[in-house]
Request: fold
Amino acid sequence: MSSATFLGMPPFPEAAEHAVRDARTRHNLHKATHTIRGKRDAVVGELGDDWARLRAEGEAVKTHTLRHLDHYLERLEESVQRAGGTVHWAADAAEANAIVTRLVRRTGETEVVKVKSMATQEIELNNALEAAGITAYETDLAELIVQLGEDLPSHILVPAIHLGRSQIREIFLDKMAEWGVPAPADLTDDPRALAEAARVHLRELFLRSKVAVSGANFAVADSGTLVVLESEGNGRMCLTLPETLISVVGIEKIVPTWSDLEVFLQLLPRSSTGERMNPYTSTWTGVTPGDGPQDFHLVLLDNGRTDVLADTVGRQALRCIRCSACLNICPVYERTGGHAYGSVYPGPIGAILTPQLHGMSSEVDRALPYASSLCGACYDVCPVAIDIPEVLVHLREQVASAPGHMGEKAMMAGAEAVFGSSTALDAAQRAAGLVGGAIPKHLPGTAGKWTDTRDLPEIPRGSFRQWWNEREEDR
Amino acid sequence: MRIALFITCVNDTLFPDTGRSVVRLLERLGHEVVFPTEQTCCGQMHYNTGYRRPAARLAVRFARTFDGADAVVVPSASCAAMIREHYPKLGRSGSRLSRRMADLGPRVYDLTEFLVDVLGVTDVGAYYPHKVVYHPTCHGLRSLGLGDRPYRLLRAVRGLELLELPGATECCGFGGTFSVKNGDVSAAMGFDKARHAMETGAEVLCAVDNSCLMHIGGTLSRQRSGLRIAHIAEILASTEKEYATT
Ligand code: SF4
Reply:
């Protein structure tokens, strides 16, 4: 049993170069993303103009909450404590992991069941628990597949989207026995058979486990209620059966009141799974005597979020409700898959969120804002109207203004000199017209990335402005 | 009407036929075209790659060059989107640039917008006896919201058979410097676009943006596909008398 990590992955262009050649993954991704796009289009389309109103409302609630985040966080803390829960504050991943480890240790248990959660992926909680001798069992079907396969998640909603069912069958047959109830020897790759094998495997864990770790889709400041939306009901098992529940929640997950949920419970399922309503919505408020976990802890996670909040353009990324619609529509994601982004958050949202959370500290982070053709499809589908292209360009400005990449800077300065005067442009065009025929079919260096797969356009003998000026003279 | 043409640096340098077609088309429709020769480039490449200051300087240049124009026609949807969408944000609020663009911006049009919305024509009297597919480029589709304008113009062209392009709304993968910074993904996207176009049996793939066409066309040409590209202006300028050779 070992846990994988994104650490040490190559930057996007390099990772993508390999990913686009992986025919099996390309096929799986194409099929999955196109299926889910179709479902989303149908359930969003049926709302007509109401969708735009819901979207504007979702954006407004999130923007308001983020502007007054300090206020709502205090309110949430009070509400949770009043309802019998304990609130912990974690400035970064290390603090959050230490808090959760300490809380689990205190119970005397050495295993926990987990509800699918991006926040705990972000802090790599499973690795931290493992180092402390505690085994974390993922119970979301796709997370289970990734965990058994010692793989990494490649999608926010469907972490195993890159795998086909025959690959899942192999993983179950190979690995389930190591973690608990083995898969039946005659397991087929029929989706129902695979789900049944997972059900039997997980059921034993649910009944045995005394501690659960979750995230939350929303945290209601007024009532102290946490909310998880899911499809399988496995989350519900974790949230109700164990004695202790620890929820790790990013500070941006707050909504002010219960009635604000109305908007998001419509936006999220339609955008993520393409359903009008997801099958299971669980809510819990502190501790209810005699019902569900009797010991509840909320760990509020910053981990870079307040830094993001300080950036007036970039902060809109904190509105994200992790629906994955931007991944599913993204033509880049469709061709590379999630691993190429080298981050827990892949796709368009990952390209703007990860570098901001990390502060663009690595080559991987600095490459992410460029992992987009700026086609704008992500902005179109985003249920909280995050202008992802705008943030991408904003982050590119930060990368470009930092030291380094002298070649590009020289090229841009050269281009500006040419475009800085129409005489210079005319001279450059005349020169190009003269040497045009002599340009090689395969260019060296970065430009070779063009000619590797595409022919260059023919350089015309004369520019448009030359033609225009000659025509004017003839008049 | 006196129409100022912003040709764009890509068209000016690499696709002069597109510019000649725009002039021929607008003059045929009875309008006067002027070409302010001080113009150069809209700054889109600088802006999209993260070089905001040079982009802002080029924006100032544009605003100065076209100050007072009745209408500015741009045969490139992405450059028109750059000017209308991003120029206002490039200047500080209250700056000369933002004041000039607040005035000028609404009079900057992509060619198809200008024809349909301002001149109110869809039948421009063109003749183009070919099977054609139209690729709605991202900025035309999502930033400018061109909608069905290009299709209406193409459907009115005599002899032209407009075929449906599968996956039309998906990006072709050009993306400016993306095409070399992430050349592998760009190529994968471009190939899918080219394949979709080829599968329709069309002879010509057209669009409102030559930069996207340069990428798709380069892919088609490398595949030795036999399918050619044309800017929509070249199709609309073509008549029985002056039949486009492209
Ligand atoms: S950025 Fe928008 S579309 Fe993407 S996951 Fe977040 S909420 Fe969904």
In short: The longest helix of chain A spans residues 23-45. The mean pLDDT of chain A is 95.
